[in-house]
Amino acid sequence: MLFDNLKKWFSVDMGIDLGTCNTLVCVRGEGIVLNEPSVVAVYKGTNKVVNDGQAVGHAAKVMLGKTPGSISAIRPLKDGVISDFEITEAMLGYFISKVQGRHNLFRPRVVIAVPSGITIVEKRAVMESAVRAGARRVYLIEEPMAAGIGAELPVAEATASMIVDIGGGTTEVAIMSLADIAQCQSVRVAGDDMDEAIINHMKRAYNLNIGEQTAERIKIEIGSAAPLAEEKSLDVRGRDMISGLPRKTVITSDEIREALQEPVHAIIEAVTRTLEQTEPELSADLVDNGVTLAGGGALLRGLNTIISEATGLEVRIAEDPLTCVARGTAIYLEHLEEWKGTLEQGMEL
């Protein structure tokens, strides 16, 4: 008992939002302590991380699309799940070590948010990677539940709470009641698909090849799902697909809105499918409770407006939607004994 208490006192237990685009770590009493891109730079043909294991997160993202032939900047998660186990393990180990700092007498307990649609094998892979990366005990929580808790929705009460969590690789749509998910849709269409739609539009309309970071900047600066009160324009630089030379052009927000129609429509379809499959009493609750958007995709201008038009429900954006899932994992960790029965139990070292 004394040893268990010592482990609690001297380990930095943490909640992790292991995202396709960004990894966030939340520590009890401290809030978000780490928010870095889920990117690792390795020497080509190996899994050795560049700069003595330090080229992770921000240090690796600046290399995307700019590496020499000997280095690859890799995003080891695709569609919310691990696509490269060894590199994910290296990334998690770096982040856990960075958060622990000098307080590393005992390995930490970790709660990790995962997409609701992943398989048992994929869940096992996440847990094994976290244990090898330095976690003492691993618990998994489904992302929409973590997002709902982080958004301070009454998920434990006998009323319907609806969350739409739009991340980088997946969109999670869930209706929760009594501390569990009553109805859920997980679609592998999210922020990355919006970036890809912008890249394809630039190729088709301008014969201009742009990278992922440029596409993301376009989405953030002028992207929208509904018409803007004042349309915007932006200078974009890339490589001409015909001449092969650098070139710039000017694009507008209305053409980017058109380019984003397909991924946005897929998200709306997931929302309406979830509502159609929901029990009548829970549907009735949503007339008053509405829908909450979380995740980076929630920040796309006008997305709440068009979802509201498609469903007839009030749609609001959670406070600080980017950190909802990470904050939810930390709250779960804080009340672990109460919630443990609803968590996926992991391994312990």
Describe this structure in words.
Helix content is 40%, strand content 26%. β16 (291-294), α12 and β17 (315-317) form a beta-alpha-beta unit. The chain starts with a helix and ends with a strand. It has a 6-stranded mixed beta sheet, with helices on both faces. The protein folds into 3 domains: 2-38 and 75-145 and 324-348, ATPase, nucleotide binding domain (Nucleotidyltransferase, domain 5); 153-189 and 262-322, ATPase, nucleotide binding domain (Nucleotidyltransferase, domain 5); 191-261, Actin, Chain A, domain 4 (Alpha-Beta Complex). It has helices spanning 2-10, 50-53, 58-61, 85-100, 120-132, 143-150, 191-206, 212-222, 253-259, 261-276, 280-289, 303-311, 324-334, 336-339; strands spanning 14-18, 22-27, 31-37, 40-43, 71-74, 77-78, 81-82, 109-114, 137-142, 161-166, 171-177, 180-187, 208-209, 233-240, 246-252, 291-294, 315-317, 344-348. It has 349 residues and is of the alpha+beta class.
What would you report as the Rg, rounded to the nearest angstrom?
21 Å
Give the mean pLDDT.
89
| CATH class assignment of the largest domain | Alpha Beta
Helix coverage percent? 25-40%
The largest β sheet comes out as: 6 strands, mixed
Given the structure, what is the number of helices? Answer: 14
Question: How would you name the CATH homologous superfamily of the largest domain?
Answer: ATPase, nucleotide binding domain
CATH topology term of the largest domain? Nucleotidyltransferase, domain 5
The coarse overall form would be flat
* Whole-number tally of structural domains: 3
